[in-house]
Structures are given as C-alpha cells and as structure tokens.
Design goal:
Elements (H helix, E strand, L loop, with lengths): L2 E2 L1 H6 L5 E4 L3 H6 L6 E2 L5 H8 L7 E4 L4 H12 L4 E4 L2 H20 L4 H11 L3 H14 L7 E6 L4 H16 L4 E9 L4 H13 L4 E5 L2 H5 L6 H19 L4 E3 L4 H15 L8 E3 L7 E3 L7 H10 L26 H15 L2 H9 L10 E4 L2 E4 L14
Parallel strand pairs: 1-5, 2-3, 2-4, 4-5, 6-7, 6-9, 7-8, 9-11
Antiparallel strand pairs: 10-11, 12-13
Amino acid sequence: MLRKTLDEMEQDSREKLIIDIRDSEEFETESYPGAVNIYLDDFEERFFRDYPDEKRPVYLICYTGLKSDIIASDMQSKGYECYSLDEGYRAIMRRNVSRYINRTEEEAEDRSFAREAERSLVKKFRKDIWCKFTKAINEYEMISDGDRIAVCISGGKDSMLMAKLFQELYKHGIQNFEPVFLVMNPGYNEMNYRVIQDNARKLDIPIETFNTDIFDSVADVGDNPCYLCARMRRGHLYSKAKELGCNKIALGHHFDDVIETILMGMLWGGQVQTMMPKLHSTNFPGMELIRPMYLVREEAIKRWRDYHNLYFIQCACRFTENCASCGGTGKGSKRADIKKLIAELAKEDPIIEKNIFRSVENVNLATVIAYKKDGVKHHFLDDYNLPEGQSPW
C-alpha cells in the first residue's frame, strides 16, 4: 500500500518517523506535530545521511500527496516501510479547520474569550502591541475628528488583530472617529470564508461583508494574476468604504512588511522607497489609506495569536490556498527571500532591523546622486557649481 490516510497514520500506534517534504517556510508556518523537515529535492541525500539504519515506518507529507507518492514508491522499492499521506498537508489543514470550526461554534456564545483578548492587548501585550499601535496613530496623525474608517479584514492574523485594536481604541480610548469592520469576499472557498466569520464572532467583531467576483476575473490571467488581484481588491475596498460613508481605509501592514518593502525596492526595484504609513488615494478623491500597525512587529502579532490559540487563514487565494505572491512568504516569493535575509542579518546584530526602518527617515539629499519629487528628477550636478545658497529652480 502506497498511501495511507491521516486517520490510518494516527491509528498506527508504532513508533514512526513523519517527514514533511515541503519547503522550510511552509514547514515552519505549520506542520504535523512531531514531524521533521527534509525538503523533497534534498530527500535522498538527507534521509540516508540522518537516518541510515531507519527501521521505523516512515510517513511522508507534501502539499497534495502527489510528490510524496513518488518518493514513497522509491523508498518502498529499496525495502523501507514508507507511506505517502493521502491528500498531504491539505488533509491536515482540512482536519484542523474542521476541529477549529467546531470549537469556535461551541465558544461563540461565551463572550469571555473576546473580553480576555481585549484585556491582553492593554495588559500582557501593552508594550509590544497596544503602545506601538497608538504611537503610530499619533505620530503619523492617522485619525482626525469625524473620521469614519473602514477597518479592512482579509482573514489573516494582522488584519484581525488590527480590528480588535480599533475596537478597543473606540471603546476605551478616543471616540472622535467611527470604525466600520469591513470584510470583502473576492471568491473565498467555503472553508476559508467560514474561518473568517467564525473568528469575527469569536472575537466579537461586528463585520460588514460584501461579495465580489475578483478571483473569477483573474483566473485566466497568465503572467501575474496576483498583482492584478491585489489592485482590484484595493479598488473594491475603496469603493465599498466610500459607499458606506467612510473617508479612510485601514490595512494591516506591520513593521516587518515595511522593512521588507524597503529592501525589496533596493534589491529588485533599483530604488529607495518605503511603504508609507498613510496615503491619499489617487483614484478615489477624498479617500485615504492608513496603516496603524506600522510600528508593530510581526513576532508580537504571532505571540498574541498563539497566546489565545487562534487559527487564521494564511492566504485567501482559492487557486493555491497558500499563494506566495499575494504578499505571502511561500517558496519562490521575493518577500520570503528578503524575510530570510533580514532574519540572518538580525542574528548578527538586532539593531539592523530598526536601522533599515530608520534609513528612509534619515535621507541626506546632499549625499544622494539623484532623487525624484512630484515626478521630476533632480540630480546633484544641477546645483553642484552654483554659489552657496543659490538654487537652480
């Protein structure tokens, strides 16, 4: 027998070796408890090096079960008791989501969970999350009297935490604005959409939902469907927010997104730029985008998530369910490469992460070859030989 189901694997009471052959980023995000990671391209070399006399039954996990089939078949031909997990990691994800949904339905009526999540923000996570959130709002002047802000929830950990922070700010902080918690369904599969709704209920966030057909619209786009999808989603959010009387939309980008964007622009874009804390919309006059999680570290968000045993979708793309190009960090994503690079540099000196952020706050134009402002390029030679104090414009 080549394949075994998740239930069959768990019913095998013998001591067994479970190997996840997906890439390291996917494995570190989530895997089966007790599994080890050997990437499929390195499997033969690593397995026979690390487990040369393996006598235990071996179970292999890939994303769908197809790639693990190939390796399991080869291992069986070599005399090993080796199985491929039927449906791979998708079977684990489906089972986890099913358990999570059942649990959240039972807990939905108990408001104590939401209250505890609120208390943790201003107590246990006060320094790393709450104070960073309010500092960004104040430092970058994100909220003005009379604002009606569409807090956009994608279903991931960042936007859901942002919604809870806005709710807490409105309840117990400043009340010169009104939040609207907005969820757009661009074509989620039923499982993902259910998780978003259950999390909102679990955290007592009153969401306003609306549907679009964005996923269908980009399904046949060949080169870069994710870029088009992202632009369309942003446009629909602006449009719906304006329809609801909002003058701002809030997105859940955090500190790590910012520094990753800075390096991505330099290394792949050949330019120095950053993800701005707020922006005026060019296509929707009177609308503004704000990023109140701007100073919050991703690690703090993960700690809050894990402290409350919350489960969030990682990527809403119904085509891959873990799309690296939608701002994700899967294999092949430039953002994943940058995230890994920054992590390696930070091991040598943690100040590097803060210095990347500060670099776009401390630009010395006297030492820059050229820069652009309002679409006009300025070069250092333009005024190099002019008398001191005299401008070429």
